[in-house]
Design goal:
Layout (H helix, E strand, L loop, with lengths): L1 H4 L14 E11 L16 E2 L4 E11 L5 E9 L4 H7 L1 H4 L5 E3 L14 E2 L7 H22 L2 H4 L6 H20 L9
Parallel strand pairs: 1-5, 5-6
Antiparallel strand pairs: 1-3, 2-3, 3-4
Length: about 190
């Protein structure tokens, strides 16, 4: 069902469409990690800085104009940086004349990443408000996913099963949006 509901659509690359097309963010979920060291409780690479706990992570890219998830990547270990996940695949899907909105974790000075836009003090009031409202849309979706108890509590069944659970819930949320039963905050 994921391939039917969460997919890249050709109109995102249309030069006649808006230049800002997506908002992206990583979302972390607490995960149980088996302790195999007597004094060190967790592996640092599995730790999420957002939760200060072992976690699994997904990168989500949501349309700025429609209630539509176009891209997900995961599950990843909690210590993997959002920008690293972006650079693995999503970066190469964005057309050169398009922009994707992210939070300060996506700040970059690389010349090959002009598609990433973050909030800046140099933004006009209208642009700053647009970016704020766009990021809020994705936070609302994250909150709706975490309404399900399996994602709201610590996940104890391993990364593979977490991926199944998260994707099932995200596809369910996408179906609800497609049917008009769940709306996100509009920019």
């Amino acid at each position: 069902m994921k391939v039917l509901r969460i997919r890249w659509i050709a109109h995102l690359d249309d030069p006649n469409e808006a230049s800002f097309i997506l908002v992206m963010d990583g979302t972390d979920f607490k995960a149980w990690e088996e302790r195999n060291h007597p004094t060190l409780p967790y592996k640092r690479k599995n730790m999420s800085h957002k939760m200060n706990h072992s976690a699994y992570k997904y990168l989500i890219a949501l349309s700025l104009t429609k209630d539509k998830v176009h891209y997900i990547s995961g599950p990843h270990i909690g210590g993997k940086h959002d920008m690293t996940i972006f650079r693995e695949e999503l970066k190469y899907l964005i057309a050169p004349f398009k922009k994707i909105l992210g939070d300060s974790g996506f700040a970059t000075s690389r010349p090959d990443e002009p598609m990433v836009s973050i909030c800046s003090t140099l933004d006009s009031d209208e642009l700053a408000e647009f970016k704020r409202r766009g990021k809020l849309r994705l936070e609302v979706l994250n909150g709706r996913c975490k309404d399900y108890a399996i994602l709201n509590n610590m996940f104890t069944h391993g990364m593979e099963k977490f991926g199944w659970a998260f994707e099932a819930i995200l596809v369910t949320c996408q179906y609800k949006m497609d049917m008009g039963r769940m709306e996100l905050f509009n920019p």
